[in-house]
What does this fold into?
Amino acid sequence: MNAPFQKTDAVPLGEVSAELETIAIVGLGYVGLPVAVALAERLAPKGCRVVGFDISERRIRSLRAGHDFTREIDDERLDACGLAVSDDPEALRAATTIIVTVPTPITEERRPDLTPLRSACETIGPRLSEGALVVFESTVFPGATEEYCGPLLAEHSGLKQGRDFALGYSPERINPGDTVHRLESITKIIAAENPEALARMRAIYSAIVDAGLHEAPSIKVAEAAKVIENTQRDLNIALMNEIALIFDKMEIPTKDVLAAAGTKWNFLPFTPGLVGGHCIGVDPYYLTAAAEKLDYRPEVILAGRRINDSMGQAVAQKAVKLLVSRDIPLSQARVGVLGLTFKQDVPDIRNSKVPDILAELGEYGIEPLIGDPLADPAEAKHEYGVELTASEDLTDLDALILAVDHADYVAEGAELTARLKKGGVLVDVKSALKREDLRDDVIYWAL
It folds into this structure.
């Protein structure tokens, strides 16, 4: 899993079959690694050469040791696929097709941060072969691939876009931790700037995506489709969050309301909760930034974002009110928070909204104890200044906030109340527990 490719002769844009391609995947995270492994499994045995590139030495060391710490690819499959990985940019020099899967985050001001995309283009450019196809899977605003990435590649390669190299776009649809909706079982959108490039994309992706391909008429259409997928989901969750806040004031359990409403055939099964991660909580800002450049101020989209960004604060405030109702001095309250990752059963803490809960508790003088069996302690300390607490030390609590419904926590079920003092407060963000199974003396609240 070490060797980069040797230089090969340049090839015309339209004359490479999938089996003869030399494919490099730039970025080996949640998105890139499944693509790289699938290509290594299905096309490498037919003659295609595949290499995965990542700038993280830690990531490359882990993959070479046969372990994917994102848990998207199990160790046995990773070892069997024979994927070559490298952190040497020269590994890209021989590629006839380069697939870019780097993250596209937002800044502290909630504006698109294209730094990883720019860095990828600056790395690829000097090593871009004439006749190469560059496909982007990263979420961007419409126009970014052709108007931002293309010129960068041209500038750093000395090649002409559309003549010496071609661009394609195929938005990722990876759902971390989802064992049902996988790369091969999700319809893949593909688009390219010319028919020849689209034909090459069709040959490559059809080999690894069993669910089939949807060919968008333009790259901008494909970019727009991706950015609204998560915007729509973000808005639906925002509606549920706002409804949950209203029903809380009415003292009506939101979970029960949704169960009743869900009996109608066209009621959508969304639930309230924290909206973090690198997609749903980020992508809407790419669309709104593009709209604002055209002098259009989105109202509905940004309203949804405001609601979802406020939910960590709302959860913490509810916990504080419940503690006060029990006459527990806040400065002395022993509060535990279970879960730090952005989502259940994944180890990724990027853009988690749990730190919003921690920060708001801190405003009331509460120093919570935080546990998470999946989060990396060093990363938690580096990213958020959080010291993770061992599970066995999260006991004798005045309040417990089940912030992330990891399977291990849900499996404890009613036993979670054993961590609480008599009359303690249990806050269940995702309504993962059954109230009827809990101790009678516990004050239980769910979003």
The CA atoms of residues 184 and 210 lie 5 Å apart. The first helix runs from residue 32 to 42. The first strand starts at residue 22 and ends at 26.
